[in-house]
Known about the structure:
The protein has one helix at 2-64. By secondary structure, it is an all-alpha fold.
Amino acid sequence: MRWRTIILLVVLPSFLIFESCSGEKKKLEEEIKILKEENAYLKAENRALKKEIEELYKRLEERKN
């Protein structure tokens, strides 16, 4: 009887916590993957905007001269 009680009070909750953490870990890994892809897209967009700004400054300088 004691061993069953120990198993139910100690081992089972630990297992359940581990399982819920595993599921949460998978969700977080998927979210990290999505955020990394989004970050790469935003970096590329940022580079393109910087180039566009540089071109606009060049045109502005040419008009001033």
